[in-house]
Amino acid sequence: DQQVKQNSPSLSVQEGRISILNCDYTNSMFDYFLWYKKYPAEGPTFLISISSIKDKNEDGRFTVFLNKSAKHLSLHIVPSQPGDSAVYFCAASEGRGGSARQLTFGSGTQLTVLP
Amino acid sequence: DSGVTQTPKHLITATGQRVTLRCSPRSGDLSVYWYQQSLDQGLQFLIQYYNGEERAKGNILERFSAQQFPDLHSELNLSSLELGDSALYFCASSVDQGQPQHFGDGTRLSIL
């Protein structure tokens, strides 16, 4: 049972335009959401996160939106650059008391930004 | 550079063998997490340690074990290896819960 789903395996966008990556989740106990970017032969790199008490968080060109009622989050990249081409993973976690935290990952979306 | 160091980068071994993967977390991070990424399963959480104590367990096989030492580095031990254990093993660290986890570049394990 996939608790975090990224339904688009790939996305192509023109340089300078907006990239929108989507993620859906089923576990209503998730209270912290993150986006990671991954290049081949490297580990996932943290991009941006959002707590369930917010509905939007911005960091430079990256904005994450959270719609709790729809159990949906999205990552907007504006403007998109060729260096943004990578696999993007959505991840979620729930507090389980103490210091226990584990991430549940989606399957990833390959973003290609065309020059 | 995330600040998380994993060694070795590559490991090739045979079925039935035992290996140890090592992880040094970012300076100041108390939590260490282990994840497995295989082709058909994606990134799966294995186990978490916080300041030397096990905090959370995921889909970790009984043949696998881990520990976190007083200097906060961690080791993942995989024994009685099977072909299906071939995967990328990532370590991540964070200061505490509610903080982003930062990943190392992984150890690629190949079982022949």
List key phrases describing it.
heterodimer, A: 115 residues, mainly beta, six-stranded mixed beta sheet, five-stranded antiparallel beta sheet, 11 strands, 52% strand, globular, B: 112 residues, seven-stranded mixed beta sheet, 0% helix
Task: Describe the protein.
The complex is a heterodimer of chains A (115) and B (112). Chain A is mostly beta strands and 115 residues long. Chain A is 0% helix and 52% strand. In chain A, the strands form two sheets. In chain A, strands 2, 4, 5, 9, 10 and 11 form a six-stranded mixed sheet that branches. The N and C termini of chain A lie far apart (38 Å). The mean pLDDT of chain A is 93. By secondary structure, chain B is mainly beta. Helices cover 0% and strands 54% of the residues of chain B. Chain B has no helices and eleven strands. Chain B has strands spanning 5-7, 10-13, 19-24, 31-38, 42-50, 53-57, 64-68, 74-78, 87-94, 102-103, 107-111. In chain B, strands 2, 4, 5, 6, 9, 10 and 11 form a seven-stranded mixed sheet that branches. A four-stranded antiparallel sheet of chain B has the order 1-3-8-7, with no helix packed on it. In chain B, β9 and β10 form a beta hairpin. Chain B is globular. The termini of chain B are far apart. At the A-B interface, β4, β5 and β10 of A face β4, β5, β9 and β10 of B.
Quick gist of this model?
Chain A is mainly beta and 115 residues long. Chain A has strands spanning 4-5, 10-14, 19-25, 32-38, 45-51, 56-59, 62-67, 72-77, 86-93, 104-105, 109-114.
